[in-house]
Design a protein that fits this description.
Largest sheet: 9 strands, antiparallel
CATH architecture of one domain: Roll
Structural class: alpha+beta
Shape: globular
CATH topology of one domain: SH3 type barrels
Oligomer: single chain
Distance between the termini: 19 Å
CATH class of one domain: Mainly Beta
Order of helices and strands: HHEEEEEEEEEEEH
Number of helices: 3
């Protein structure tokens, strides 16, 4: 970790000892980060499960039919996931497991909707998966998209992310 970043050719190839800007940046200090336990694991291990407080920020702008972007940490195929919201934020009255196998406890505030699945990486087109319902926490929302560009390919309807919207999403992650 450094207090200032450097993007010289040496640093881009992890050759920090030969940094071209040594006089401007401090030395590298290794920091070990620990991942917090997932909400499902924490609740499952707790004897008295308690709903987490909800801190809505970007998700305050979400309503029915909104299209949101969620960071896709650890997924080499996607930079972000797109989700079309079927309802605004809802408080669960019972424990549920969504169609993707994610568990959510009663009392949690969540967003329900359908993911867009990538159709073509080159032209940034997606198709809407209306067969499976996804559930996400409002705190995972990183960007609320404008409408996607609707394109027709034969009998299939696909949606395209405009280049400027894609850049804005990437910047928000």
């Amino acid at each position: 970790m450094r207090k200032r970043s450097c993007y010289c050719g040496e640093c881009l190839y992890d050759n920090y000892d030969d940094c071209q800007n040594k006089e401007l940046v401090d030395s590298i200090q290794e920091v070990m980060l620990q991942r917090e336990a997932s909400a499902a694991t924490t609740r499952a291990q707790s004897e008295n499960p308690v709903a987490e407080p909800v801190h809505l920020h970007v998700a305050d702008l979400v309503s029915k039919d909104s299209i949101i972007a969620i960071a896709a940490d650890g997924d080499d195929s996607y930079d972000y996931y797109l989700l079309k919201i079927s309802d605004g934020p809802v408080v669960l009255t019972e424990d549920i497991i969504d169609n993707y196998g994610c568990a959510f406890s009663a009392g949690s505030t969540v967003l329900k909707g359908h993911f867009f699945l990538r159709d073509n990486l080159i032209d940034m087109t997606y198709k809407l998966d209306q067969k499976r319902v996804a559930v996400v926490f409002p705190g995972t929302v990183r960007y609320v998209c404008s409408e996607l560009i609707e394109r027709g390919r034969g009998k299939r309807k696909v949606f395209q992310v405009a280049a400027d919207v894609h850049e804005d999403i990437i910047a928000s992650l």
